[in-house]
Amino acid sequence: MFVKKNYQSVLIAAAIWVCQLSSTVVAAELNVSDFSFDGEYGSAGASLEKLGSNHFLIRLKSVPEFPAWTNMVQFVIKSNAKGNPLQIDLEVPPSGKGLNEKGVRGFVSWSANQEHWNPIPRTLIERDGKKYVSLVFPEFTHDKIYVGGEVPLSYDRCVALLKEFQLDPNAELHEIGKSVEGRAIYRLTVTDPAGPVPAEKRWAHHFVNQHCYEYNAQWRMIGMIRYLLSEAGAECRQQHVWHFVVQMNVDGPASGLGRVNLQGRDMNRSYSAKGSGVENQAYESFAVQRDLERLMTSETPITTTWSMHTWDGPVVETMVRPGSEMGSKVGEWKELRDIIGELDTKGQFKKLYSLGDKGLTPKAWCSGTYVQFGVTAFCCEGGGHIMRLEQTLHTGEVLAKALHQFYGKTTP
């Protein structure tokens, strides 16, 4: 009996020792082979150099046709991240100009599941006489990690969300073209097909994001969609038709493209106010404009167009070129400005202002639609430093509510 008890005690002690030993095992540090630049969140042509323990230098490749611009810093840690912190450095141009086009804007985010994103702001450091943008990540709690700009949205994740929205009877998903690499470009339409207002008596709004890396603008639209498909958005669906091209540059997330597509064309400088033409436009921009032109001849022609962007700063900045309905069928644009101000209880918006006919650029989406069709054209900028996804989603909800309050009082 004594021997048996003593044997059991030895086994228990051994088990405790093994548990203690396993809890003190240090994770193997990250190596170059753990990283991928060609996954859902990619940066074409990027290279990685190990500088020290969990410390790396990324060299980014220039985008097509613009040697001064690089692809953006995005990557996937395929394995071995758990238990490791991480520091990523990027060289800064000697002039300090063009920093936003040199790999990272205000911040990046990381996630283990592409649902809960954690922001990492950029910092500037100097080492051996050189300046670097540095991104310092905390110790990871999972082995596989996704990293991208702002609050990123991969093409695959975007399509999955759109197909989830499509399950709602008030949403319809349309494939409107293909990208250079053959990815489908989608437009999601939200409206109540059984609502009491006939199609020809509904207002119609068209939203599109041109610059891929401005992910917060894409999430702003998703915030609108979620509100419009909710119970609270019922009246919005009955009186309006809402069209969303959440991603125009669908090759961008996997390549790290910012402003340009794979042809090297700036996606917001590739509108044709004379009419769409594949020879003169970026391939994807042509597909979206051609679809917009078809919508203009439908029974519910477009009332407002929205070019959705971000730039540095914590507030959303919206500009408008008023169309003929403002001040006639509906109120002046200042009334919409005041409605947004009343709904903006969190201080996320700069006051809406009018550009009128000032600085018209027929090749830019921000004013090309105004030149071509005379519709009310909005350029929605800013919000590039809103680091929490739920806050960006809320800005979309505010815009949807404001448009309904402004236009929903009457019919076209």
UniProtKB/TrEMBL annotation:
It holds the Pfam family Peptidase_M14. The keyword Protease applies. The keyword Hydrolase applies. Residues 151-412 form the Peptidase M14 domain. Residues 1-27 form the signal peptide. InterPro entries: Cytosolic_carboxypeptidase, Peptidase_M14. Coiled coil: none annotated. GO terms for molecular function: metallocarboxypeptidase activity; zinc ion binding. This is Zinc carboxypeptidase. It comes from Roseimaritima multifibrata.
